[in-house]
Amino acid sequence: MALPAELSHLLRVIREPLVCARCADDVASGAAGDVSMRDYGRLEAGFTEAGLQVWCLRHDVNVVHVDFGGATPEADFRCLERRVN
Ligand SMILES: [Zn+2]
After folding, report:
1. Burial label, 60 (beta-carbon count in 10 A; 0-12, 13-18, 19+)
2. 14 C-alpha vs ligand 1 centroid, how far in Å?
């Protein structure tokens, strides 16, 4: 069964993963060992007073803070799973 187009954003459509700059340095330099950025990163994300923040738990630093500028962007928290037959 084809997925309705209006739900396609609920699949994994990440184009540019968010990474901590310090974690990226660790992986690039080899200091993290033989591990991928995806496996090394330890990120937490959540809403703040002004918007949304991604935090590196490994380095205890900000990765990015997105200020919504007072707007309330549309957010979709539905979980969509592919059915395997
Ligand atoms: Zn980090």
Report:
1. exposed
2. 19
In which residue are the tokens 């699949």 written?
Answer: 11
Query: pTM for the full model?
Result: 0.85
C-alpha 2 – ligand 1 centre gap (Å): 38
The alpha carbon of 26 and the centre of ligand 1 are apart by a number of angstroms equal to 8
How far does the centroid of ligand 1 lie from the alpha carbon of residue 3, in Å?
A: 36
The tens place of each residue's pLDDT in the chain, 85 residues long, gives 677 888 888 888 999 999 999 999 999 999 999 999 999 999 999 999 999 999 999 999 999 999 999 999 999 999 987 777 7
Helix, strand or coil for residue 80? coil
- C-alpha 23 – ligand 1 centre gap (Å): 4
